[in-house]
Design goal:
With about 190 residues, the chain is α+β, with helices and mostly antiparallel strands. The chain contains four helices and six strands. The strands form two sheets. A four-stranded antiparallel beta sheet has the order 3-4-6-5, covered by helices on one side. It has a two-stranded antiparallel ribbon with strand order 1-2.
C-alpha cells in the first residue's frame, strides 16, 4: 500500500511540474504589454561568462509599452544592448548613456495568431508530459500487481491516476484559454 501511495504522490508532483513548466513558458510569450519576463532569455557576456540580464541590471516597466534597463555598471550598456539584439526578440533597444529603453511595439493580428499557435504548442507539450507521467505511474502499478499487491488496490490506484490526469489536463486547458484571451486582447 505504501508503494502505491508513493507512486501517486510522485506522479502528482511530476504533473504539477509539467503545469509549472507551462506557466513559465507562457510568461515568455508576450501578450502586447511590456513585462520584465520578456527579457528572461537574454544572456549578457559579463566578464567572460554568459549571465542572465536580470543579474546585472535593474529591469523596470514604467508603462505598458516601455521597458527600461538600468545596468549596475555603466560599462555594461553596450554589451546589454548587443545581447538584446542577438536574442532576436524583435526589440530595438535605445541607449541614452544611462539606461537602455525598449519600446514594445503593438502586436499585429498575424503576430497574435502566431503567438496563439505557440501557446497551443506549449500546452500540447505539457499535456504530453502529463500523459507520459500517467503511463509511467500505470507501469509502476502493474509491476506492483505482478509482485503481489492486491488487484483491487491496483485498480483503485489506476483510477486515481486517471482522475489526476484528467484534472491536470483540464488545468492546462484553462491556462491556455486565459493565455489566448490575453494574447488576442487588443
Amino acid at each position: 500500500m505504501e508503494e502505491i501511495e508513493f507512486i501517486l504522490d510522485s506522479t502528482k508532483e511530476a504533473m504539477n511540474g509539467s503545469v509549472a513548466h507551462l506557466e513559465k513558458s507562457f510568461l515568455n510569450i508576450r501578450a502586447g504589454k511590456a513585462s520584465p519576463q520578456m527579457l528572461g532569455s537574454v544572456f549578457v557576456d559579463y566578464y567572460g561568462s554568459q549571465t542572465p540580464l536580470s543579474q546585472i541590471a535593474n529591469i523596470n516597466v514604467p508603462d505598458a509599452r516601455t521597458i527600461t534597463i538600468q545596468p549596475y555598471e555603466k560599462n555594461m550598456l553596450q554589451p546589454i544592448e548587443k545581447a538584446i539584439m542577438v536574442a532576436n526578440l524583435g526589440f530595438n533597444p535605445m541607449n541614452n548613456g544611462d539606461i537602455i529603453i525598449i519600446s514594445v511595439p503593438p502586436l499585429t493580428e498575424e503576430r497574435r495568431r502566431d503567438l496563439v499557435k505557440q501557446a497551443k504548442h506549449e500546452a500540447e507539450e505539457a499535456k504530453i508530459g502529463i500523459r507520459n507521467h500517467r503511463k509511467d505511474a500505470n507501469t509502476d502499478i502493474k509491476k506492483l500487481e505482478k509482485e503481489g499487491t492486491s488487484e483491487d488496490s491496483c485498480k483503485v490506484a489506476e483510477e486515481t491516476v486517471q482522475k489526476m490526469t484528467d484534472a491536470f489536463i483540464k488545468k492546462i486547458e484553462e491556462h491556455l484559454v486565459t493565455k489566448e484571451a490575453e494574447i488576442m486582447k487588443v
